[in-house]
Amino acid sequence: MFETPFSIVGTVVTDPVLRRVNDQEFVRFRVASNSRRRTTEGTWEAGSSLFVTVNCWGKVADGVAGVLFKGDPVIVVGQIYTSEYDDKEGNRRSTVEVRATSVGPDLNRVRAKLDRAQRVPEPAEPTGGQDTGAGEEAGENRELPISA
């Protein structure tokens, strides 16, 4: 399948819904991207709107679930495609969807605080029972790696 790269800056217009599909987390929500243009009088007027369904799987779904809500400004990156279906009256319809590879807050419109997972260092392997006296007591004066 040919996948077209796509990014959208907009507002979440439906609360993200977390589901489990087989053994994977899945989150779906809709985003609206609205354009505005300045008139010759200097005022702003609304332009076209684009509504996109965003599908998140795996780690992206874990990151979105419980963090994003209706009304939040977001940036979504992924592959865009159309999904076709028959409605209740039997009419053929299509919807624009994005399989997200990244989702984040639009920092132009909101402030965010990052919650980084801390890495715990692996315990050191025993050195064969010899103590040179230069070793450190467990948990003292160790530097932990910093992850960004």
TrEMBL record:
SUPFAM superfamilies: Nucleic acid-binding proteins (SSF50249). Residues 139-148 have a biased composition (Basic and acidic residues). One of its GO terms (biological process) is DNA replication. Residues 111-148 are annotated as: Disordered. InterPro entries: NA-bd_OB-fold, Primosome_PriB/ssb, ssDNA-bd. Gene3D superfamilies: Nucleic acid-binding proteins. It comes from the Bacteria. Coiled coil: none annotated. One of its GO terms (molecular function) is single-stranded DNA binding. Keywords: DNA-binding. This is Single-stranded DNA-binding protein.
